[in-house]
Every structure is written in structure tokens, then in C-alpha cells.
Fold:
Amino acid sequence: MTAITKKPENPIAHLTPEDIEQIGIELDAIRQEVLDARGASDAAYIRKVIRTQRQLELGSRAVLLASVFPPAWLLGTVGLSVAKILENMEIGHNVLHGQWDWMRDPRSTPRPGSGTWPPRPSSGSTATTSCTTPTRT
Structure:
């Protein structure tokens, strides 16, 4: 469809403001269920992934440091690639969704000066960096 063709109908035109409000309430309830379901197993999982990523990166760098033979170079390169994938796809995804605010675990938060965003608030600050949705009034 191009900009010149007829515009499609509004897909929510048939909903009343009350219907939209009810959908919002239902979505908020689902979100709260998910937030309430987080627990020790979720915290253990993210700690395990962080530990695995750090060990894999360190081991791969050690292999690359001593890689005189091409198979060692290949192993170190693949290991570093997998470590980076874990860091970006799994750890980054959890941090993006506010994992560090939920756990309040200094071992799994970005270190000061690491250039990650959003930055942690200072110890005297009351601001939070969690991903929150606005409350309905």
C-alpha cells in the first residue's frame, strides 16, 4: 500500500472509551501477575548466565593468548563470539527489562564507568531506573 492509496480503516474505531479502559486494566493485571511471579529461580538463572558469560570470555581470551595453532585460534574466537552473544542477547535483554532494579544485586549490575545505560542512581538518590508503565488515573 502506498501513501496515495486509500487509507485503511482504524482497527480500534469500534471500541468505546470504556472498552479501551477495560483492555488496559486487563493488560495491567497480566503485567502484575508476571511481576509477582518473579522469584529465586529467576535470580539464580540470571546469575548463572552472567557467571557463564564471564568464564567463557576469560577462558576464550586465555586460549587466544596462547593460540599458536589455528585450531586454538578458532576455538578462542568462537568462544569469544558466544560470550558476546550471551552478553548482548541474554544479559542485555534482562537488564533492558529492569532486572537489576528488581534484584538489587550489585554483582549483576553494570559497573560504574562501563558506559551502560541507564546509569544506576547514586546512593543518596531516590530515583529509579526501572522500566515502568504509567499508572492509570
Q: What stands out?
A: The radius of gyration is 22 Å. DSSP finds four helices and no strands in the chain. The CA atoms of residues 3 and 22 lie 33 Å apart. Helices lie at 17-37, 40-65, 70-96, 99-103.
